[in-house]
Structures are given as C-alpha cells and as structure tokens.
C-alpha cells in the first residue's frame, strides 16, 4: 500500500504551517512599533494662539501653534478653510512652533490639524476649529460685460469698488481673478487701466464660438492694510462667430468678414477733413434703431451744426461715433468722405449691417487722416495696444519674457 507516505507528507506540511503561524504570532507580540498605534490626544502638548468656540478671531493676526515642552515636538500643521483653501505657514526646525505666513481670510471657518510626537517617537494629534471675524472694509468686484453672447473682440472688465495702488496688493487681485475660455485662448492677462479698473484680453481675438467663465476668489482675502475682498458672482459669456468689418477710408468701402470669409462689401462715407474718422480697431458697444444726433452734443456748431434723425445706428465709441444709415449722403458713398466722423451708408446696407453685427464684434478703420482710437475711456481700444505693452499693464506679467518657463515666471513675480 502506498497511502502511508502520502499521509506523512500531509502531516509534515500541517506542522510547518502551524509552526509558521506561531512564529508570526511571536513577531507581532508585546512590543509593537510606535507608529502602528492610534495617535494619542495631544491636547496637553499643543498650545494654539486662538481659542476654540470663543470670540471670532481677528484675521489681521497670524495663527500660531506651539509645543508646550521639549518632551515632544510638532511634526506637521494644516489649516484649511471651508472652501478648501490651505493657509500657508512655516514650522521651526526644532518642531517647537508653527506660524502662518499668509493672512487669514476674513469671515471664514478654519479647521487646524496638528500632528505631534512624544520623546519616544509615538505620534499624537490635535485639531481645532475657529471662525475669523468679518472684515470692516471690503472691496467689491463688478465684472463686465453682462452675461450673453459677444464677438471675438469683447474685453473682460473688472471694476473695483476701492482703489488698489501697490504692486503687492495688485498682484493679490490679479491672482484672485480667473478667466478661462474653452477652447483655450493664446496668452491673456489683466491690464490695469487705472486704480479701480482692469481689462482682460488674450494675445489675439477670442476663439470663435468659445465659452468664457470669469471668477473671483477674493472673498475674505486680505488685499492691503485692512482691506479685504468680498464675494462676486461668476460671469459666463458665449463668443459667437468671428465677425470683422474693415473700413478703408481712402477707398470709401467697408468689407465684412465672417470667420475669415468675405460676406459683403459696402460703399461708405467717413469723416471729412477736420472731422476724420479715427483709425484703429474698435469694438461694437451697442445698437440703437433710432438716435437723434445733434452737433451741439459733441461741440459742433455754427455752419457745421446738425440735428438729424438717424436709423440703424451701431455704436463704436462713447463719444458718438456710429456706423449708421445716411440716406442724405448716398451720392458720396463709395466716392468721398463727407461725414462728421461716423461711417455712413445706405438705409438698406445699414439695416443689413445692424442685423449682422453684435456687441463685441470688430469694426476697424484704416487709411483715414484721423487720429488713432484711444486705448481706453472712449470704448474698447484694447486691441490697439501692442501685446508687449499690454503685458506691461499686469503686475504679474510685467518684466517676464513671453514664453518663460513656469519656474522662471514664478521667480520674477512679486511676492504676496
């Protein structure tokens, strides 16, 4: 019979398994590694600069965490608000003290988690939740334009309720205002028009048929001295087809393109000598079916004065430059410049243009004897600013060469 050897082999394997089990039990015995146990409560070891559940904390003061004795040390500290934003801080080399290096947000709730170890290396933990007081002085941000569909030339605007002057404070504002387009636009940054106004544009026009989302992360953020940001509703825009109207003042014709293809060519008249139409790129500001145009409203009187009912008027400057119907000058359209600065065309062509164009579309004038469109203040002359000069209007981009690596850019930007 051959059964006995087989039984012997099975028994031997059984003994081996039992032996290994006993050995494993012995290895996990009475002296476990310190890190294998649940962290101890470090309440008696850690001291916070704020009290839990008490009076709301002044956000102008730093958060500090200290070890009460040298019998243990702090190994890590995280402080995060309800929005998931981490508070930057530094831990001393000896693990005895941690201090925040960035301002606390105003009107926020923070949760602080502290990891410690005692003199034997055993880990401990302690957590604290506290609220900061609301800011006494806040700054609101108003984004523009209103939600809707616009042309590829529409700049984004941010109007501040309080002036911001210092480079450090401006850097905080710029970092906190986000513009995202889908598909992505090449480049793009904020440009400070003045202490209370910023404009944003990409290097080239927005991609046709893109989506733009503008958001502010300034709520509760310390900007300067005792000035804090407040909440701002995100802005969502849709960009339509790329529509450009190019007016050649010397040829007396306007050519309109949609997504790069010519769709119409219209005989026009522009400003006569002494009233020459501004050169440069303008952005459509709005459309008015009827406008009463009076020369006196723009300082034109005497023999040059006028008072006319005007239809199908598309505005391109705040000072009163329009593209509009001018049935009184049809004989000059395509041949001579006889207006006081507006671009005139037949009623039928003006109606077609009015229906085709939208806010944010491009109206460019070339070969006029007039001055160039103002960069700011009389509509949107943003696209007449050279890209290098546009970047100089940003605290974060000024002095950083285009195409710099993220590491180089971070090194050259102002510290916050």
Total strand count, please? Answer: 28
Shape summary? elongated
Strand order of the largest sheet: 22-21-20-28-23
Highest CATH level, the class of the largest domain: Mainly Beta
Helix content: 10-25%
Stretches where pLDDT falls below 50 for ≥5 residues? 1-29, 408-412
What does this protein look like?
The chain is mainly β and 416 residues long. The chain has 3 domains: 38-131, Immunoglobulin-like (Sandwich), CATH 2.60.40.3780; 137-240, Immunoglobulin-like, CATH 2.60.40.3710; 243-385, Beta Barrel (L,D-transpeptidase catalytic domain-like). Helix content is 14%, strand content 35%. The chain has 5 helices and 28 strands. It has helices spanning 3-27, 167-176, 347-356, 387-392, 406-412; strands spanning 40-41, 46-48, 64-67, 72-81, 89-91, 97-100, 109-118, 123-131, 137-139, 141-144, 148-150, 156-160, 177-182, 189-194, 197-201, 211-216, 222-224, 227-229, 235-239, 243-248, 253-258, 261-267, 280-283, 286-294, 307-315, 322-325, 343-345, 362-366. The strands form 7 sheets. Strands 22-21-20-28-23 form a 5-stranded mixed β-sheet, with no helix packed on it. A hairpin with a 2-residue loop joins strand 17 and strand 18. The longest helix is centred in the first third of the chain and has 25 residues, at 3-27.
